Amino acid sequence: MTDERSRKLMKILVERQRHELAELENQTGLTRRQLEYTLEKINAILLETYQQTIVLENNRITVSLEMKEQLLAVLVDDSYADEYVMNGGERGNYLFLLLFYFVDDYFSINHFMTEFGVGKTTILTDLKNLNALLEKEDIAIVYSRKEGYRLVGNEFDIRYHLMKMLIWDSTEQNTMFIYDYFIEKNQLPSVEQTKEAIAPYLVEYQLSFVENRLKEFIYTLIFLEKRLGLKVKVGAEKFRLPAVIAMKEYQFATRILALTDNHDDFSALYLGAWILGLSVGNPDSTTKDYEIIMELVKRIIMRFEALSGIRFNHQELVINQLYSHLRPAYYRLYFKLPIVNPLHSKIKKEYSELFNIVEEALKPIASLFEHAIPEEEIAFLTMHFASLSASLKEAKQPQKVALIVCPNGIGSSSIVYTELKTLFPELSFIGPMETNGIEHLADSYDLIFSTVPNIRLFYTKKPVYVVSPIMNTAEKYRLISDVYSQLGNLGFQLPSVKSILEVVEKHATILNLGALEKELYDSLIPKNENPESEVTEPVLYEITNPDLIQLGVTARDWEEVIRVAGAPLLKQGHITRGYIDTIVENTKLEGPYMVIAKQIALPHARPVDGVKKLGISITSLSYPIEFGSKENDPVKYIFCLAATANNRHLNAMAELVELLDDQAFFELLDTSQEPQVVYQYLMSKSQ
């Protein structure tokens, strides 16, 4: 008899050969007692089927190759589904699926008790918990003797909850077990049948989905089928866009709906809008919305470059990558489709400076929608900009070949690729690619890195390492340790942080165990070869000084403003004279790209154009000057940036972005006559 805990633990156990009990507690969120009880459940299954058990010795579990194959067999064996015991959360999801799919059926407490094999009190508790969750989305579960239990609320809100639930379980929980069980038990069209049915139309209309988005689309399509025919009155207007009818996504929707004899025009509009929010944008396809989306992409890139001080060398590559994400993102935001980003918190923490800059860069386009851009969407774009901003050296003399499998799209793929190249410079990498792409590869790789647990990969008989696209220090350490211990002599064997701490505790008093542990992890993980990259990123006041601050300056035109603003940097040896000339020439060619907000300019060029060392000058004008920016002229405050190639200025730029809304700072620039006062203000903001 299996349950959610035992399946989750089995999936974790097959990922690695050795597991510390303390690590398993962190990964599963279980207490020591709960973990041991779950192991007993798994062992009962293994003992009955294979006459073997998992051995816990010295708080460690070692999974042999034979044991790994047995666990995989249990995970894929359908017979265990019949004995599966759902927890409260799973019963809640299943209850919602019953009420959602069987919209015309009558459900009573007795029906639910029979369905789940639990008592009345348990069912009432599950209904109460589900109702509390749905109330947050203006949905309610109501009961009447005539109609039984049913869902009440705006139909789009009800569909939204289904989509969000599906996406969350697919991405964050990485399990579709409950949905597969529902489909099989109620004899719905299977995922494979649906996939085969729509495959020819995907080819015909040249639609492309990221692997996980296609999976989410198929599952949702299966569950939506019965509700698509419902007449919807409230909220339907936003889907009746003439532009959608002209899209191939709409034509695709009409064809696949016809497979189920659904010829309702609004159903096709709704489905077409939803597909627009899922499919990958193709910059080489001349769609009706191409010019609009491309203009937004270029505006975002220009604003990001202006705010961050980064100038991308390969504009076409940057544009194409962002277009592929922004087109579906635009429709997700416009139609208010669910956005689930399980890495949101991690991205915001690990790339906090970049996140703040991207958030500011998106502000001008936020006005296109009726609501703020969710942080989950900002985090997705942050991943793209993080990967595009990274500059890593090529590995020398690679000894082994690693395959990267990522079903989550370009942003996640690019991030994990750059992370792995830094951690394992001696490996040569293939990918990133989706799971199905492996079938077309020859047996030319030695190991696999995957961003999601995927049972199919373990059958390749290659070492498989499950990694998060955004890894913290401890996760990087554990990954390096796993790879080196399994592959053998690739360079070095990491010492155990736990062992080091035990030695330190014998001979010294540890004042802050957590801080010491983190610093040990940091010191043991391989860094980028560039020594400057190991230095902490400076804050704003650390890349300027009173001599770089000019107050009450006068100038005749924008060109003189740029030259005056750059003069202190030139004098202190931060830049060459050619750097200022390049900014002027770029402005003549590209327009006032550096005007980033009302009255504010951030002139900068590429590091190769003449930067000697990192720095920023601050100049305020007595009288504003026109730069040619329709939205933000005239300019009164100029921050001239000299950024080095390693992007160490991003922390300072994130701080500058925060200052854009600090009225007191700009009043100080207007009224103060002493650069030292301004400098002290910057220092106080960084404390």
UniProtKB/TrEMBL annotation:
Domain annotation PTS EIIB type-2: ranges: 400-491
Domain PRD: 288-395
Domain PTS EIIA type-2 positions: 542-685
Protein name (Swiss-Prot/TrEMBL): Transcription antiterminator
Coiled-coil residue windows: 7-34
Signal sequence extent: none
UniProt GO BP: phosphoenolpyruvate-dependent sugar phosphotransferase system; regulation of DNA-templated transcription
Superkingdom in the source lineage: Bacteria
Keyword field contains Transcription: yes
Keywords: Activator, Coiled coil, Repeat, Transcription, Transcription regulation, Transferase
Any one GO MF annotation of this record: protein-N(PI)-phosphohistidine-sugar phosphotransferase activity
